[in-house]
Structures are given as structure tokens and as C-alpha cells.
Design goal:
By secondary structure, the protein is α/β, with parallel strands linked by helices. It has one domain: Alpha-Beta Barrel (TIM Barrel), CATH 3.20.20. It is built from ten helices and ten strands. It has an eight-stranded parallel β-barrel, surrounded by five helices. α3 (about 65-70) runs parallel beside α4 and α4 (about 90-105) crosses α6. The longest helix is centred in the C-terminal third of the chain and has 18 residues, at about 260-280. It starts with a strand and ends with a helix.
Length: about 280
């Protein structure tokens, strides 16, 4: 089982390049960065994590620029969005962003995506909250066409463009792995449909005892359960839980860091590293 790290990089935290160097030096497998373009003053949908939205959600850096900085100072760790809000992005521009980052990192990018929870944020991007999941599917399918075809076109209900040319193409073929975030059971169904893995937030998916059922669902859809990765995002730094996740066949657990400076982040990262050593 792999252990990854996630953080909201901000102007008051350790920077993306700095945290990436420290994550790689300690042997972690991956670094995951989230996305919010802005937080509207008036929210019309609740944050699933609790009654009050944490400050780093307002302040987080742009993920692709941050991950490019991380790619420049590392050579081994995988670099991932966790999650990229594709429902708020142009699929043509995002396809280029993904392919460019995959090239810059020499094939180390994981494309973690999701539909998101912030209806007001989506509205400012012209996205209807009620149809965000059909929109997400079409945008992903359109990006797959752009990544794999020298002359691509797409014609759907939500995404439509005539034949065009777009380079670069990703290093990873046919595309960087797409991991779809979200809760049980609907996000798992979306991941089986057009993703390469599923990444629920710990506590919002099925219990670890249900992972055999997840594998059966993947197999019943004609997908290979051994190739379909399940990652637990926001996993508590608890040794017994991590061992249970490992034994249940979880591919990856992603542990969090606070949006803080190096003197506060590094001791936590060291403790996470010790947990990783004990689990492996």
C-alpha cells in the first residue's frame, strides 16, 4: 500500500516546491493538491466536512502551477490533483494543462477529479450544480479524445467542439490515471464507468470491511479489480487503521498536513513517515 501526502498550499504555508522536496526525501509515494478558484461570500450548499469552512479553502494556490513547481524539484514522487474541479474548467485548456504537467514531470501525474460541493462557486463559472456530474463525464471523455487522437472532436450535450489539433500529448498512455473522488456508491459507479480509480474521503465511503464488495462491483462491470486503485483520502494518521486499510487491499492512503510553515509541518511529516515505515 502506498502512502501519499496532501496539503492546502497557501501564502502562509510551506510552498509547493518545499513540501514536495520534503515528501520525496522521506520516501512518500505521492503529493496531492486541491483546487478552489474562489469562495463566494454567500454559500448555497453546505461543506460536507462540518459547519465552518476552514480558512485554507479561501486561500489555496492554483494546483497545476503548484504541481509544476513541485515537478521541477523532484524526480520520483507522483504529483496529483486532489481534487481538480473539472466542472469549473474548460476541457480543452485542462487537457493541455494535464498533458503539459505530465510531460514536465516525465509521466508522474495522477489526475484526481471530482464534481465538488460548492454550488455558488460553480455558478460563478457558469456551471449548473444539478447537472455537474453529466458535465464532468463529458468533459473527461472530451479530454481523453484530445489526449489520444491527433485530430480530435467531441459532440455531446454539454461539450461540443469541431475537429481540432492540440499538443502536447501526455507521456502516460493512453492518458494519466484518472481517479474520481466522491462518496459511496455513486462516485464509485462514475469511477468504474470512466476512471482508473476511486478516491473517497475516509469516513464517507464504505467501511474497510466492505472492500470485497467494491472489488466485486468493479469486476461485475468488466473492469480488472487489481488494476482499479482505491485510495482513501484524508486518512487519519492511525497505525491500526492504516494496517487495516493495507490488509483490505487499499492501494493508497493519503495523509494530511496543515497549511503551516516548515517548522510546524516537518515534525508532522516525520511522524507520518514513521507510520509509513511501520505499515510497510
Amino acid at each position: 500500500m502506498h502512502i501519499g501526502i496532501t496539503i492546502f498550499p497557501t501564502d502562509y504555508s510551506i510552498g509547493p516546491a518545499g513540501v514536495a522536496r520534503e515528501v520525496e526525501a522521506r520516501g512518500f509515494e505521492s503529493l496531492w493538491l486541491p483546487e478552489h478558484t474562489h469562495i463566494p461570500e454567500t454559500l448555497t450548499s453546505a461543506w460536507p466536512g462540518g459547519p465552518e469552512l476552514p480558512k485554507p479553502y479561501y486561500d489555496v494556490y492554483e494546483p497545476f502551477i503548484s504541481l509544476a513547481a513541485a515537478a521541477a524539484v523532484t524526480s520520483r514522487i507522483k504529483l496529483a490533483t486532489g481534487i481538480c474541479l473539472v466542472v469549473q474548467r474548460s476541457p480543452i485548456q485542462t487537457a493541455k494543462d494535464v498533458a503539459t504537467l505530465d510531460r514536465i514531470s516525465n509521466g508522474r501525474f495522477i489526475f484526481g477529479i471530482g464534481g465538488g460541493w460548492n454550488a455558488a462557486e460553480m455558478r460563478d463559472h457558469g456551471t449548473d450544480f444539478a447537472t455537474r456530474f453529466p458535465l464532468m463525464r463529458e468533459r473527461v471523455m472530451a479530454m481523453k479524445a484530445i489526449w489520444t487522437e491527433s485530430k480530435s472532436e467531441f459532440h455531446g450535450e454539454h461539450v461540443d467542439f469541431p475537429p481540432m489539433f492540440s499538443w502536447p500529448k501526455p507521456v502516460q498512455k493512453p492518458n494519466p490515471p484518472i481517479h474520481i473522488g466522491g462518496a459511496w456508491p455513486y462516485a464509485l459507479r462514475r469511477a468504474i464507468d470512466y476512471g482508473d480509480g476511486w478516491m473517497p474521503i475516509y469516513g464517507r465511503g464504505p467501511s474497510l470491511d466492505k472492500m470485497a464488495e467494491v472489488r466485486r462491483d468493479v469486476a461485475a462491470a468488466g473492469r480488472d479489480p487489481d488494476a482499479f486503485e482505491v485510495s482513501l483520502f484524508g486518512m487519519p494518521p492511525d497505525l491500526d487503521l492504516l494496517k487495516k486499510a493495507r490488509d483490505a487491499g487499499i492501494a493508497r492512503c493519503v495523509l494530511g498536513l496543515p497549511s503551516a510553515q516548515m517548522d510546524k509541518v516537518l515534525p508532522i511529516l516525520d511522524r507520518h513517515s514513521e507510520l509509513m515505515r511501520q505499515v510497510s
